[in-house]
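Render this sequence as a predicted structure.
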Amino acid sequence: MAQAGRRIIAARLRMRVVGALFGLALSGAVQAHGGLSIDSDLCKLRLGPFNMHFTGYQPEINGNREFCEDIPKVGHTIVVMDVIEPELREMPIEVRIIRDTGDESRLDAITVLHLPPKTYLSGSVPFEYSFTSPGKFVGLVTAGVEGQYVSRFPFSVGIPPNRYGHYLLFLGVAVLALGLYRHSGTKRRRLMAGQA
């Protein structure tokens, strides 16, 4: 009877470990994009205590399909950021797109698009840019008289997403779960052989 109880406890423990590892794998597969997030099917740009709705389009390439984070292809791109909180309409907002070189000490040299600080009373901050080659970029949005609210979000242009990392993560979890299962079975056989 005690062996049956131990087997049930071991099986439950294995299931919990596998569940926890699977949950960890799923959470690890999510990629952070700095100030951008998807919340209730809306792309939000966090700017200090404020939020902006972020929408991107490539009409000549994808028609009316919107994107939120990475830009799918090289080409003409339209981005519209809409203020959510009314207080942000009264603040100057600056937008800068830079090449992601890892060194931002010479900001002007790596800037590909710059909208100087301006108050957008309509609450809409639109801009257009034609990306000519694939690569990694960083969006910098600042607001406030002194630029005290900052959002920094990395993104890529024309680079297909790497799905292999996700597959390797799931494979690693499966191998670990199988190893735990086999290890507990070996331990159970030894325990049963020792009692015989």
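Summary. The two ends are 15 Å apart (CA to CA). Confidence is low (pLDDT under 50) at residues 17-33.
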